[in-house]
Amino acid sequence: MASKSFLRRCSSSSETITKTKLSSLFTNSCKVTATIPQDSVDNAEEVARLDKFLQKDCQQGNITLDEARYFFCLMIHMQPKPPISSFNRMFGALAKKKFYEDVILLYKQADSMGLLPDLFTLTILINCFCNVGRVRNGFVVFGRILRWGFSPGVVALTSLIKGLCLENRVTEATRLFKKMVVFGVRPNVITYDTLINGLCRTGNTSVALRLHEEMVAGNGERGFICKPNIVCYGSIIDGLCKDGLVDRAKELFIEMKSRGIKPNVVVCTSLIYGWCFVGNLEEAKGLFIEMANQGLQPNLLTYNTIISGLCKEGKIEEANWFLELMIQRGLQPNVFIYNTLMDGYCLQLRFDDARELLFSMESKGCKADVVSYNTLINAYGKNRKLENAMSLYKEMISKGIRPTVYTYNGLLTSLFLSNKVRTAQKLFDEMKLNNVAPNSFTYGILIDGLCKNGCVLEAAKWFRTLEYNEFKLSIEICSSLVDGLCKHGMIKIAWEIFHKLPQKGLMPNVMTYSILINGFCKEGKLQKAYDLLFDMEKKGCAPNAVTFNTLMQGFLQNDDATKVVELLHKMNDRNVIPDDITFSIVVGLLSKDKELLKLLPQFPLQKSTSG
User: Fold this and answer.
1) In the structure, what pLDDT confidence band is assigned to residue 8 with cuts at 50, 70 and 90?
2) Tell me, what's the pLDDT at 12?
3) Which of 116, 138, 160 lies at the terminal end of a domain, its last residue?
4) Number of domains into which the chain is organized
5) Phi–psi pair at 45, nearest 5 degrees
6) Which of 172-176, 498-502, 569-573, 591-595 has the least mean pLDDT?
7) Could you tell me if residue 564 is inside a domain?
8) Over 80: is that where the pLDDT of 603 sits?
9) Between the CA atoms of 469, 470, 472 and 476, what dihedral angle is there, to the nearest 10 degrees?
10) Which residues of 570-604 are buried (b: 16+ CB within 10 A; e: fewer)?
11) Chosen domain end from 99, 116, 133
12) Structure confidence by residue, pLDDT tens digits, 293-317
């Protein structure tokens, strides 16, 4: 810490730091552009300002990056230099304001000029490295701590654990946590919070739960007590809710309250999300009311969460009620909430209401974004409302909103559904001209659309182009082309593509098999189709009702009732639920021979998929 007596000695130093020299040092050494204030007077006044900066401003956090750089240059060129504790105070204040990269740069400058760091300096440096995703550098500094004979503290080790978690290296973070005792360091509640948060964020909630249970039990085996706090409970509750384990999350919520820890808005919002995720809206609304009763003001995320849950369940009127409530309570809905409501309207095919909401957003002080337009364009596209989709596309362009790949995917879907093949191809070219890169879904839409509109050879050319350019093909793209080839009598080419799938790192799914089985049935190659059923089961791909129906229809048309009955039994043995098409096949079978009724399996009484 720079004492006043030390700073007074600096003011009478034989080397007077002039304004001109300090300005030059500040610009050249710190690699920044700045000037010394014109009203700066002599060296004594500068030292007094430095004293105030270190003793008061840094402690209170009332600093800016520019003034920190200014005083750093002043300090680094003083003779004698201030003690390392003065630099630590500055570095610490900057780190608290999250100027991590700047601390690293300033430290390197000080190090190059011979400033010797202490344990606190190195600890601050580790924290900065870890917070900017450079945990490897953090461990280099940690190695220096050990080589220089310092005893690392809980802050340094907690920072390293945080850095590992930020890089999703939670296994290493957990290992380091267990090794803390080797360094004679006891983890504190922040250490636990850091590791538990990292575990939950990366889907390792079960491991986080074990740590939590250890804390609740009193950390007996580690020889100290460190009880869970609101941060610990909040991380685990959030992780459990995202995993769909909401009942367990509720148990922890009750446990937290029983330990005298009052829930905050973040924890309640996580639990509301969990209830909405599993479709239990009554519990979600109940917790929302409980928040209000306890004086907890729901924030924008809370409202967005419950509005989203209601929209997904088709309760759009209730969602609107919550929108009005938040406005009454002084919260301005953001674009995410409006987009959520628009999506809710679209799910109910209430396009006029969704469009009206899009138009009314700006009058309520909220500007629509690309997601707003994409939501409506995709909804229009899937429901064959091409003119509406194209109109919105032109509108967003006129407003300077740049379309994304999702915009084009929605429009291409709509165009192909409306048999506008040439227009779709022009839009695809326009997409590339606007520097929007097609993704796997885009190519899937293109190839599927071309196949379904009779342009199978053109689709095959695109497929070959993607192969040539080593594009990572998806099984959906391959299945679309196989389907198109089969429907246009090119079963041999379809079979070749099917056989080469493993070479592309792809495994055919139930849709791929069903498409090819249908293709062979149409060609009258029933045995080949039947063999594919065994092949798919052998490779761990379970057939569904579509697969069985396709095969049975083929054998029924060939008057092979025995095979149809056999397939019905296989279907029943594999617990595949029959649908309306299955029942129509059975009716067709019995119309040919009613005696076959005695041979049919007894399917369990369950609702058909289309019923």
Assistant:
1) very low
2) 40
3) 116
4) 2
5) -70, -35
6) 591-595
7) yes
8) no
9) 70
10) bbbeeebebbebbeebbeebeeeeeebeeeeeebe
11) 116
12) 888 899 999 999 999 999 999 899 9
